[in-house]
Amino acid sequence: MFKRHRNLRKSAGIRKLVRDVYISADDLVYPLFLEEGTGIRTEISSMPGQYRLSLDMLDAELDTLNELGVNSVLLFGIPLEKDPFGKEAYNDTGIVQEGVRQIKRHSPDMVVITDVCMCEYTSHGHCGIIDESGVINDTTIEYIAKIALSHAKAGADIVAPSDMMDGRIKAIRDILDENGFNELAIMSYSVKYASSFYGPFREAADSAPAHGDRKQYQMDYRFSIDAVSEARSDIEEGADIVIVKPALSYLDVIRKIRDTFEVPVAAYSVSGEYAMIKAGALNGWIDEKNIVMEKTYAMKRAGANIIITYFAKDIARWIKEDK
Ligand code: PBG
Question: Keyword Translocase on this protein (predicted)?
Fold first, then answer.
């Protein structure tokens, strides 16, 4: 006797009956790059189909997202001016803060998540305040907390620190609580590797470090036990949701975090993953829809509850079409 595995693959109906992994538009978060200025809708050359938008172009984008049922966005800002201290990042009328207000006016039910970091705002492109030895951890977390507070005051639903300083979640939780934002959630980029898959993003957000790299603060992908340790610290300090980033090459890490902790896990399918698939698809070498769905299901199967992806609109459309 041998097991007939094919019995449950016989028809589309049976395959649908036994499947146990699902994706819904409700799980998707769409990243938006907001640039200070007017009349800007610039396609990012290494991310075909993705744009930097000025706020006057934002309403049309929100209409599209609403139509497709994508209910969550993650905001990145590109300011006009950068300086060593990233002042624009905590300017109460900065690009992200104004973006949050506009989204909340236009689409009050949209879940607005803000990326809390300094690399798009500092002239040197590092994720914090630097001296000759590198990014100074304890000084930087004071700035990171200030940025999170200004996003909260603008009306953000969730703040998402991506700087990778130690102690930042506690610093953010403290400043939010002191200012009456006790119930504002923190989605922490807890498990964030120093990755070459962020290359296209750095063009998109104009945030490449002017010198050096981020290996002193982002994680080393050859040190595997660090993932649980990072997530544990953030959860103990008050993180409500944990991000694993990148996603596709780190499915094992997503599974480990899902099995170890009792918080929602978000997989961030990053710019390099998007760029590779787009490049293959535009050359006619791969089938874009089927590849995107397959790898997004893989992230779900690995245990991700939330998927942050530049393909969010496409996935939502394909789910609708296939119904
Ligand atoms: C900011 C930040 C980065 C990404 C998200 N937030 C870049 C980096 O850390 O260098 C990357 C996202 C992507 O590649 O899609 N620190």
Answer: no
